[in-house]
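Task card 7
Instruction: Convert sequence to structure tokens.
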Amino acid sequence: MTTVGIYIDGPNMERGLSNAGDMEILERIGSLLVEYGSTLGRVIEGRVFVDEETVWRSDRTPQDYARRGFDLVESKSFHYIDPRTKKVVFGKSLTDPSMHCAIVDRLHDLDCPDIFILVTGDKDISIVLDYIHEHGRKAAVLGEANSTSSYLVSKCDALGFGCHIIQLVARSMKAKKAKQPTPPKGEGDELRVTDTEGKPVDMGRYIKDRDRRANQLNPNNIAYWRSRGYSERPKDWKKRAKVKRKKKD
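Output:
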């Protein structure tokens, strides 16, 4: 039977879901992820990566993690003195590298999960996705809509991995609670992605960029040849592109 492992960037979910006002999800995030993972296979492990400065927006969140058997992995956080206020403030932590190393290390175990569910919106996880792909495993990324990187979405597309928005679960939950019909697929809130600087990206523009990247990776499309330098193009590249387009048609 297919096995599933769930790895969660705790601080990322705390910030993203609380800022979006989706406390219903945040308080039941562990249960929702296990339910989702069970649709893919048998969930054999779950880890939540946090740091010593992680702030729980609700006590129900860690309680739900514990009830569903998640292990909390705590890492070191760092502080620095703000030059303007002269106060000691929270800085970077080792949460992300701790999570990344744990996943890469797990890939070398004989009982490694067949599918990794990675709960984060950070584009840094894209490097780990390459390792998962190289080891013949599958992955599904779940992130918060406002904080999911567009680069991460495109990376999942390129590798054939699923990339989902956690709030899609919330819509059905809220509809049931209000005794309203669940919005049909494709209606309601649209997927919102951000650029590398965290600024919102127009979905129309994002789709055009994604299609352009797909064409540049397709040898049957002339964009494939045009996107490469002259030294990489064969002398008859225009003829090849025309022949491939005719065969495709």
